[in-house]
UniProtKB/TrEMBL annotation, chain A:
The EC number(s) this enzyme carries: 6.1.1.21
Domain of life: Eukaryota
Every Aminoacyl-transfer RNA synthetases class-II family profile domain range: 37-303
Keyword Cytoplasm belongs to the record: yes
Keyword terms: Aminoacyl-tRNA synthetase, ATP-binding, Coiled coil, Cytoplasm, Ligase, Nucleotide-binding, Protein biosynthesis
Organism of this sequence: Rhinopithecus bieti (Black snub-nosed monkey)
GO CC entries: cytosol; mitochondrion
InterPro entries, A to Z: aa-tRNA-synth_II, aa-tRNA-synth_II/BPL/LPL, Anticodon-bd, Anticodon-bd_dom_sf, HisRS-like_core, HisRS_anticodon, uS15_NS1_RNA-bd_sf, WHEP-TRS_dom
Similarity comment text for this entry: Belongs to the class-II aminoacyl-tRNA synthetase family.
Domain WHEP-TRS: 3-59
Protein name: Histidine--tRNA ligase, cytoplasmic
Biological processes per GO annotation: histidyl-tRNA aminoacylation; mitochondrial translation
Automatic annotation (TrEMBL), chain B:
Record-stated family: Belongs to the class-II aminoacyl-tRNA synthetase family.
Coiled-coil zones: 350-377
Designated name of the protein: Histidine--tRNA ligase, cytoplasmic
Database matches in SUPFAM superfamilies: Class II aaRS ABD-related, Class II aaRS and biotin synthetases, S15/NS1 RNA-binding domain
Encoding gene per record: HARS1
Amino acid sequence: MAERAALEELVKLQGERVRGLKQQKASADLIEEEVGKLLKLKAQLGPDESKQKFVLKTPKGTRDYSPRQMAVREKVFDVIIRCFKRHGAEVIDTPVFELKETLMGKYGEDSKLIYDLKDQGGELLSLRYDLTVPFARYLAMNKLTNIKRYHIAKVYRRDNPAMTRGRYREFYQCDFDIAGNFDPMIPDAECLKIMCEILSSLQIGDFLVKVNDRRILDGMFAICGVSDSKFRTICSSVDKLDKVTTQAVLLQTPAQAGEEPLGVGSVAAGGRYDGLVGMFDPKGRKVPCVGLSIGVERIFSIVEQRLEALEEKVRTTETQVLVASAQKKLLEERLKLVSELWDAGIKAELLYKKNPKLLNQLQYCEEAGIPLVAIIGEQELKDGVIKLRSVTSREEVREAGRKTFNFYYGYFIDYYWQKWPDTTPFTYKALGA
Amino acid sequence: MAERAALEELVKLQGERVRGLKQQKASADLIEEEVGKLLKLKAQLGPDESKQKFVLKTPKETLMGKYGEDSKLIYDLKDQGGELLSLRYDLTVPFARYLAMNKLTNIKRYHIAKVYRRDNPAMTRGRYREFYQCDFDIAGNFDPMIPDAECLKIMCEILSSLQIGDFLVKVNDRRILDGMFAICGVSDSKFRTICSSVDKLDKVSWEEVKNEMVGEKGLAPEVADRIGDYVQQHGGVSLVEQLLQDPKLSQNKQALEGLGDLKLLFEYLTLFGIDDKISFDLSLARGLDYYTGVIYEAVLLQTPAQAGEEPLGVGSVAAGGRYDGLVGMFDPKGRKVPCVGLSIGVERIFSIVEQRLEALEEKVRTTETQVLVASAQKKLLEERLKLVSELWDAGIKAELLYKKNPKLLNQLQYCEEAGIPLVAIIGEQELKDGVIKLRSVTSREEVNVRREDLVEEIKRRTGQPLCIC
């Protein structure tokens, strides 16, 4: 033990020595020699003991969303939220963790997949497993008897992740529910209408919505002679759906060669669950609910796949114009102009360089998909004009007087946007618009 | 050594056993028992040996260096036999981890998401354990102060657009503070604690601050006085120029660097048209743990305070600065990626806006519904369902009551409560005539519209373009 402690101390001292040498910018040879000594010492500690500074990764079953993936996500959410709003839904949000007791007993066997927070001396908490139980808790807590709401948020399940198949431990759920005592089947029908509107608008292929009813299943099993005790194992549907259940499946899924087709299985599901809120209400007061959940993670994958197949370039910004300079010493002018454009609500950028080359600025536009470039040049400055150029066609769209430019900026940008539709941001082609 | 290796091997085998049982979907009891054994074995290895703790996979040691004492406020997840995890405390560390992980050398990104702190919540003052952060950062090696200036421009644009009142952005520089304290005679070890005292100048008098520094923190009175000469100053670019001429400060290399950068910054801010909103304030000294250059903080000048209540919004609504060393802490090769950014204090802004709406007695709509499809008599549900579906298919935001035979009065009342501006009334006579009555809910004016013209008429009245958006 003492031997080990001594070894660790040596490693520490040698590490400091190496750092010191680097700071003093000692000779490369000397540094290399001392680093060699450090590594030898660490090796003596044993491979498992060397302090692994860190492993750069996200937790198992989770992922970062890159700008490109965010662009897809934003578009998909946009389609979905538009639909929810079209049907008059309000939106709520709830905390990512709930009291452990709120979630206990609601998920049957799946309860073992719940992430618990460490007991740090306060309330015992767990990460939400879905959005439905928090919704029921919200209704009961606020004594609401009716609401039509959507909720888009991440949920957490300690599952076996299969990230290539879109199965994560942290993933988005996209729920819409109508709670309240209403005349039969009208809200249920609206939920199905919403599901169809969304799946059509997303243009991910033909789909079919399967519908059944728990009571029909129960009755059918009963007359076929299935004993009560076997019910749960025979149907794999979630405990809470006690009446109408729906599931939307894609009929034609884009499959890569040799790979299991993504999106096999459902992209949306839902149903009626009249008993859940009553489990939370102190008086056991029931609030009938019917709702749906869109499987957005699967849809992200499908849309991403589709964009790749079409070799569509996805824009990750919405910048309309780059403010550029043709010669040196024009930074001040660029800063002034870009500021005017921002103040007018135009989406503009400039390179963070004092004297950028024009070619580099144009290249930047091409990579980012920026459609227009406003070029400031010495001669043009004297003449009081700015050159506005289309990046793709290289055509000079306008040499506008500075005052005119400022006044008509919006007009120009919209006009040339329409004239060169291939310069529109994030292609809607994949989403069919 | 061998003992340890054997222990580690046992942990590995037990871990595999647990995984196997879970895969086979063995009984919950059996799994729990074996997990318990695994945890016991791990405990024997000792806490330092347990696999790295991460906030989104960041080791606790790194966090300790960054968050310091605050790391006790991090929410940990229970050890359930897998990786040890924690909930993110802010968005900056995840950002640095993301940059290092993807070996990115430059990016301009925003990130709006919730973060988690086991703080003492004070919900009336907008301090929660789960709250939104709203970050914008520019990472990369660029020509000096241009991205820094853009960050300040963005802060000003946002605070102006939100219309929550006049504001001021205080600006300072870590290097100026370091240099200033050095020439005043503050020892390195007292740096942080003196900073936190100086930072209180925006709330309390210099006398109180001096008393705290001398009386509680053991600073020599002469040193405190020297500090006082500097930190009570604030102004525009002229103050920067004045300090550049200061005989003592100009001898300090760090302070000179900071002042030089601030001078350049002010030039750019003038070109951006926001110099009148910026104040170079030598008492700005908060949140310095990872800032390496310019730092800034936006405060509201006039806060809407309810009678008798502590004015909300005292304190900052946005803050940020340059932090060149953070990504290097994550990169395995220590490769540096300079960063500058800002964070908008949205929870505070939410409170201010909510307060304002209440004061103005503004009714906030919670839906965007444009028209309610209603029926004037009984037995018209089918017609309502057909019509509302046509409206939805045309992209119009419409609703109907989930009742077979609702009373017209109730339907109108629903519109008034929800703020729905139009109601399309189906009536027996109108059906025969092929028209729908379109009524404005507020003015009660009605007009008969032909069924085929209804969509266009609604779009015209609601200012919607004719194509489907």
